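Sample A.
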Amino acid sequence: MADHAVKHAAVVLVLAFGAGIALYPWLIAQLAVSGARQRVQAYNPQSHMIKAGTPTMGGLLFCAIAVVAWLVFDRSRLGFVVVFALGAGALLGVLDDRANIRGKGVFGLGVREKLVFQAFIGLLVGIGLAVAGATRQAFPGLGEPDLHAAGIIIVSVLAVVAVSNAVNLTDGVDGLAASCSAVVFAGLLAVALHQHALPAVIVSAALVGGLVAFLVFNWFPARVFMGDTGSLALGCALVATAAEVHLLWLLPLAGIVFVAETLSVIINVTAVRRFHHHLLRASPLHHHFEELGLRERRLVAAFTTVAAVGTLLTVLYARSRGAVA
């Protein structure tokens, strides 16, 4: 069974990477022709102004690759929960990107609209996890307590809202969100292999392969951005995948970069509103380091290293607990 899962993971990862390398040039051209080009907001560093007009919504392809991989190699109920989370997040992202591209509002969809959609996705993901029996989640010191249906639904709603927004906030520098996401999904893939959880293996491997292919075109200077289409999809899929390998409570450790990016925004906005003073030069956190003079490639390398450390600790914990039934 273990060798079977490893072979599937290798095949899916290689095919996903190959498909991405082959199809991204075509997609980038189609996005450019259709007018799906990035608008750069005023709060971004001045150096980002040259990014305006770069094709966006590139997340469409790595999401599609993962869906096709599930259809070809899996088609299980557990796999469908992750694929649904990915697709629903991508759909919300498409709506947000289209609103942004057309100039409807400063940030695309309204905050309330987005939160309601995210909460609804989380509700459906939670129901899917409950039906599939993925209610036991590892918690340090407590073993794998059973959240039962109500608990997993509530936690899923909160997690989908938090994680999808966190990945979205991280997507502000060429290659940053994709690199950190690829690292976290690689860690979840390792855990899924250890647990012989084939559905999680298939989708995680497809996303790792697709994201690495995307990075070829998203690395500085980026030829395409994933857009909210990609970042919201990845956030939703991270929650579902982590839950299926029983690591939902450990996701903040694996996604430590996403947590730091989110906290930086909360802290800076609170400081400005309450004390009329910036604690950081800019937020999210990657913009603060850009303002300090750190170049994009080094910034991405540093943040990805931190993501790798958090993910490694998560994997080591999961392996020390053994495979969860």
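Sample B.
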Amino acid sequence: MAKITAGVATSHVPAIGAAVDLGKTGEDYWKPLFKGYEFSKKWIAEEKPDVVVLVYNDHATAFDMNIIPTFALGCGEEFGIADEGWGRRPVPNVMGHPDLAWHIAHSVIDDEFDITIVNKMEVDHGLSVPMTLMFGQPDAWPCKVIPLAVNVITFPPPSGKRCFALGQAIRRAVDSYEEDLNVQIWGTGGMSHQLQGPRAGLINSEFDQDFLDRFLNDPVELAKTPHIDYLEQAGAEGVELVMWHVMRGALNEKVTELHRHYHVPASNTAVGHVIYKNS
């Protein structure tokens, strides 16, 4: 049977991808950030997941104001890399796992999540940057990926509580899949940051650290955090943290934290990263 063995959460700042692509990871500005992922690369090379369900948000590349799905599941065989206005990132296309993706779709829809099924789309830095942080720069990604795009760009985004419940539904779906697969689930985005307006550049490390502690030890209550709290305390883009709740909901209530990394700033953004293993 398939099994979700671990969860990963990480920010997906586009400048991180640019730093890798342009060979700047050894510069003084970037070195502390990438040092925090050295453990992660070694760990995942040993874990060798067959499939990653990767929760991210599209940044107006696959979707725009004409189509705004709250949850969109990529069920295709392959997903290209989007050109976000400065050229396509020099990373491999993402290979999907249609059989498991369609199984998840059937299962979560039966579980009363009206998810959007997408068979063809390009993925942007929200997905490619986490892949780079965890796997480096391979010629081909070493696992299959099922993209799960969550709307946190246009209000109303889903609540953290709803995201947590979706994670639980994904866990039930994977557990009922008959093929023997090592599956991981990743939540991406955040942490505190705001990209526009008078509060542009906002970083709230106290909020971020409290979130990381509660994410580990009190995830059910943390998932009830209202959107206004993210907006006021973590900035307009801090609401991306609801995507982490999908990952947390798919794991056991008690997990083992294998790794934690927090760094500021990275292009005026707070970067957070954790790895959890089911206890």
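B remarks: The mean pLDDT is 97. The chain has ten helices and eleven strands.
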